Amino acid sequence: MSEPAILLTNDDGIESVGFKALYDTLSEFADVTAVAPATDQSAVGRKMSTDAVVAEHELGYALEGTPADCTVAGLEALCPDVDMVVSGINKGANIGAYVLGRSGTVSAAVEAAFFDVPAIALSMYVPPGGDVPWHEKATDPGDYRDATRAASYLVKHAEPAGVFEQCDYLNVNAPMAEPSGEPADMEVTYPSEMYDMTASYDNGTVRLHDRVWERMSTGDIPDPEGTDRRAVVDGKISVSPLTAPHTTHHHEALDGLTEAYLD
């Protein structure tokens, strides 16, 4: 069996620790081509460019663009014959329904779905607390080993098992590995619907604040079993099978409203 060809991208940038950890892991059994942003493009969603300067990189290509740019550029021009798009590993979880459209990591996988290419988005939850701010943690490739282990398993087995016959992409969130901890369990989940954004206005400035992360650090979350957030807080690897196009349903009330439009 020939090795799978993978387009690897992310939103933290091609030089990020999580990206390199994933590249090295997948390269053990796959032909991996990096097509990733040259700089951090976190939380840009599916923002697109019309032109993106490309530079050759030892891992593949670095784009002056967004994660969605990277997927399109890779599948259309730079490495068009890949079997799968993998996006990650993002430093920080991408969990909850409200986050999916914001995340550059997830958006790269969504973009692949419109090319009918299977995709996996991978992120790692970095718990807050302690003397070190969360964004200064996870600086060693070993911190990502639960995420890289999950990535290897899913890249090898998801498509042969028929997973992508029922979904377009997988949104995977792993806990940050403990120095001497056992491998985390894996659980199929769905995106949590919890939303706790707040805004305050003071002297000409509106401050937007996402309280969900603070609540996660204390365990103060209402998310039930089966949600992505509950799985991650409980130290499990969350795997959410998702579809990319927005779903539509027949609405009789809207039928009546449109029929009466010019009456």
TrEMBL record:
Keywords: Cytoplasm, Hydrolase, Metal-binding, Nucleotide-binding. It is an enzyme of class 3 (hydrolase). GO terms for molecular function: 5'-nucleotidase activity; metal ion binding; nucleotide binding. SUPFAM superfamilies: SurE-like. It catalyses: a ribonucleoside 5'-phosphate + H2O = a ribonucleoside + phosphate. A divalent metal cation binds at D11, D12, S42, N90. NCBIfam families: surE (TIGR00087). This is 5'-nucleotidase SurE. The keyword Cytoplasm applies. Binds 1 divalent metal cation per subunit. Its EC number is 3.1.3.5.
